[in-house]
Amino acid sequence: MRIPILKLYNYLLTTIQVELDDQTAIQFQDDLLNKIHETGAIGVVIDLTSVEIIDSYIAKILGDVVNMSELLGAKVVLTGIRPAVALTLIDLGIRLKGVPTALDLEQGIEKLRQELGE
Amino acid sequence: MNIAPNRVEIHNEWDIVRARQSGRERAKELGFGHVDQARIATAISELARNIYLYAKHGEIIISVIDGEKRGISIIAEDNGPGIRDLRKAMEDGYTTSGGLGAGLPGVKRLMDDFDIVSEEGQGTKITAKKYLR
Amino acid sequence: MEAAPVVTLINKRRSEIVVRWKEYMEERKDSSSIIDGRTIETTNDNFVDLIFDYLADNQSQDRLNNLMGRILALGWPLSYLTNGVHIFRRVVSTLIIESEMEKAVILDYFKAMEDLLDPIFNNLIEDATSTWENTVSIQKRALMELSAPLIPVMEYLAVMPLIGTIDTERAKLIMENLLEGVIAYRTEVVLIDITGVPVVDTMVAHHIIQAAEAVRLVGSECVLVGIRPEIAQTIVNLGIELGEFPTKSTLKKGIEYALELTNRAIVYKDKPSGLRL
């Protein structure tokens, strides 16, 4: 199962539409980092609107991918985290500190433009 | 409603997804709101992952609590290495797997009741319950 | 089963017992009671009759329980019923003592009377407790419903006023409301107004911080407003870390700050140049 990653000007957009199992998540991490490297993208929006469960393992992979992308020179914004998912993350003690968030894809792009001063 | 317990054997990563999906289904049937459904499914995911990471295989048993208070009960059982220091395993941020270490204390917060029995070399049995509000 | 001798005695002296019982009840009557005398009299009659019925045959226990339950449900004080049974016991005790029977017989009579009357007390207490528990749970639900609504104020800006004490159960509900609202109105900034929260202790602060963190996860931002001086004092004295999220003293200041955050401003039309707000 591969998650499609779209390129839009300097940005990469991806929306996760499937239930994330470990393999898919790891594969996504590889694919995104490669794509950033390939395209020289400076911003990434990962939209999680359709994701119903994020456990501590998947949260770690997402947090890692944000940090790794920054090492490659791309800013990442997570968008569309559902209320139920946010509440379970809080219960799990996961805050995703320092990871920018936005309500939806549109505001995510807006946030990237602000943060990157474009 | 079908009240026979659901047993999901955990052998590989896909079983983690199967276990939590089955738990979410059951929670929904019982009338849990969608936030609690997510809490229950996430707790199962954490427990199943513990089994997969530490014991290699084990079992998740999801059943209905049909007493004075209605709810859902999740039992995670394995014959793995057991937990040497239970107190430490229940501390926030403690991990031996390289994960975020949110595991067991997180499950405790997600659920209403939490009970753990573990013996080194014998295995671990965790019972977690959540009641309808 | 043959009736206990004490029951025979009680039945034989019934009219006498009733008269004395009513006298005592009259003495003990709460003078401030708003229940009119006629009602009290009728209820007294029913009550004492049913005690006799109950003593005569245990089948009447349901009817007695029923009456006591109805009296409680009408909002009469529990003490009316306990007094009633106590006085009955006292009247009968006096009769037994006055009977000048042998000490051992008197003790037997007493014991038999206790055995008969104790179940009434037990039932009464069970009944009253379950009524109270019921009331408490209804009130708890009412409090839940009073929970915080999220009020959209402007495009992308909403306020959640918190009122009353926040316990863990309520905090969960408030958080769910808050997050659902943020998504529904696409709120960029939420002002949580704690003007109506009487006490902010470590626990309450913890719940508010969690709410703010959850709001950040779904992609919005929280500003805590309505912080009174004494709340600022407790927060600092308790060493509570509010984390990185901003606080403002009033809702007004919070709104100004939120506008600034979202690159917006209030522009006044045709305002005389000398007058600035």
From TrEMBL, chain A:
It comes from the Bacteria. Residues 1-112 form the STAS domain. Pfam families: STAS. PANTHER family: RSBT ANTAGONIST PROTEIN RSBS, RSBT ANTAGONIST PROTEIN RSBS-RELATED. This is RsbT antagonist protein RsbS.
Automatic annotation (TrEMBL), chain B:
Residues 35-133 form the Histidine kinase/HSP90-like ATPase domain. Keywords: Kinase, Transferase. Pfam families: HATPase_c (PF02518). One of its GO terms (molecular function) is kinase activity. This is Serine/threonine-protein kinase RsbT. The lineage of its organism: Bacteria, Bacillati, Bacillota, Bacilli, Bacillales.
TrEMBL record, chain C:
The keyword Phosphoprotein applies. The gene is RsbR. It holds the Pfam family STAS. It comes from the Bacteria. GO terms for molecular function: heme binding; oxygen binding. This is Modulator protein RsbR. Residues 147-258 form the STAS domain. Transmembrane segments: none annotated. Keywords: Phosphoprotein. It comes from Pullulanibacillus pueri. The keyword Metal-binding does not apply. SUPFAM superfamilies: SpoIIaa-like.
